[in-house]
Design brief:
Helix 1 packs across helix 2, helix 5 packs antiparallel against helix 9 and helix 6 packs across helix 8. This protein has nine helices and nine strands. The relative contact order is 0.12. It has about 240 residues and is α+β, with helices and mostly antiparallel strands. Strand 7 and strand 8 form a beta hairpin. The longest helix is centred in the first third of the chain and has 16 residues. The strands form two sheets. The chain has a six-stranded antiparallel β-sheet with strand order 6-5-4-9-8-7, sandwiched between helices. Strands 1-3-2 form a three-stranded antiparallel β-sheet. Helix content is about 45%, strand content about 20%. The protein folds into two domains: about 60 residues, Orthogonal Bundle (Arc Repressor Mutant, subunit A); about 170 residues, GAF domain (Beta-Lactamase, 2-Layer Sandwich).
Length: about 240
């Protein structure tokens, strides 16, 4: 059964019985018998021409599994590992309009990070590392619209407040796959963030590491990206090359 499902998943169009038997190594009569049972259960559909494709029951089960996956619960184990490795605060942020909302965190007494470290705290997209990931996802035209809509307010002397500076920064994010907040939300606090994607490939959150500026270590960027990739994988995301 699993062999047949795997082969059917590889083909966008209905597959004849003969081809299914050949690709799975099953005898045609065996494949036909199993496919009959799967058709009766809705896991497979049979066309009038006698070819087979995946059935609606799989979509129903997939939707059920997806509904039971919590981003926060899925991310927490990886966040705790990252926190244990670095000793710094780890944040999970999602987009809410033109802002990032922090929905989960890990912390310790060692950290003096305040603003972005509070669950429920909000900050503009263009000043946060996670927010910049979402702006890159929007594309150049929507970034221009965001700049006009918000006027790019700053909260510190290093906040980005012009479209040209924002576009330059976002170009670096696009090339390196990680984003930085260099004292842009709060003086003395820096962040590195990497994106988290769901099974459809949509950017759904950002994982960020917050540190006091004096302890900021850019060498942590690959570890943060690796951790974000682990969470994406747990959510069902497959990179384009592995689809």
């Amino acid at each position: 059964m699993m062999k047949l499902l795997d082969v059917l998943a590889l083909h966008p169009d209905p597959v004849p019985l003969k081809h299914l038997a050949a690709e799975t190594g099953l005898h045609p009569s065996t494949a036909h018998r199993i496919l009959g049972a799967m058709t009766g259960s809705g896991f497979v559909e049979r066309s009038d021409a006698g070819a087979y494709r995946l059935g609606i029951r799989l979509l129903e089960l997939g939707s059920l599994v997806k509904s039971r996956i919590s981003l926060r619960e899925t991310a927490m184990a990886a966040m705790l590992r990252l926190h244990a490795t670095t000793g710094e605060s780890v944040n999970l942020g999602i987009r809410a309009g033109d802002e990032i909302v922090y929905v989960e965190r890990t912390s310790s007494g060692r950290s003096s990070v305040r603003v972005v470290h509070i669950v429920g705290a909000r900050a503009p997209l263009h000043t946060t590392a996670t927010g910049k990931l979402f702006l890159v996802e929007d594309g150049p035209q929507k970034v221009k619209e965001y700049a006009r809509r918000t006027s790019l307010p700053g909260t510190t002397p290093t906040s980005i407040t012009t479209l040209s500076a924002l576009e330059k920064d976002l170009d670096k994010v696009r090339r390196h796959g990680v984003a930085y907040d260099m004292d842009e939300v709060e003086n003395g606090v820096r962040c590195i963030a990497a994106g988290i994607r769901d099974d459809s490939g949509e950017l759904v959150a950002g994982l960020s590491l917050s540190t006091p500026s004096e302890r900021f270590n850019p060498d942590w960027a690959p570890l943060i990206r690796q951790t974000a990739d682990e969470i994406s994988s747990a959510l069902g995301y497959l990179p384009p090359g592995s689809r």
